[in-house]
Specification:
The protein is α+β, with helices and mostly antiparallel strands and 183 residues long. Helices cover 55% and strands 15% of the residues. The two termini are 25 Å apart.
Length: 183
Amino acid sequence: MLEHLLLRHASPTLAGIKTANLFSCSADCEKEISSCIRNWNQVLNPKGVYLKMLRYDGKSALLYCYRQRRLQAELLDAARSEFLRRFGYDCHCIDSCLAHLKTRIEAEPFPHEIGVFLGYPLHDIQAFIVNKGQNYKVCGHWKAYENVPQAQKTFALYKKCTKAYCDQFAKGKAITQLAVAGK
């Protein structure tokens, strides 16, 4: 089951064209989903892809699939790092950042700085916060306030990637074959 969710919701990350994806997964047992995540990490980590549970509420888990090297580079970007510092993040340590993000997600349903962890443009994340989610110019994987043509191009790329990965999976390719190494 997690395999299908990874394909449907994290293909751009598996392909190495997106920093990360976030999705929910039905899960009756935290121990069982944790075991499943460990198993997937054993096969995906060598390709640079990591899976982490950010929240479990007894019925479902919020899963974060990310490219570790790409995330680290984005967290060390001066503007993103300064932005995240305002929310209590220490961007020099990816594990510390993810632990703090987990704490923030457990405290509130959707801390808006999560856009940084998903690779969204910083100007759109900041505009979303200022505008309280209103007045955006286009909505796709995120609400875009600037550079609409680039946002639409990116949304189309993610959609095309997901379709291609789902098609390849339906033809018998395993996720381990589809996940691109090292990006």
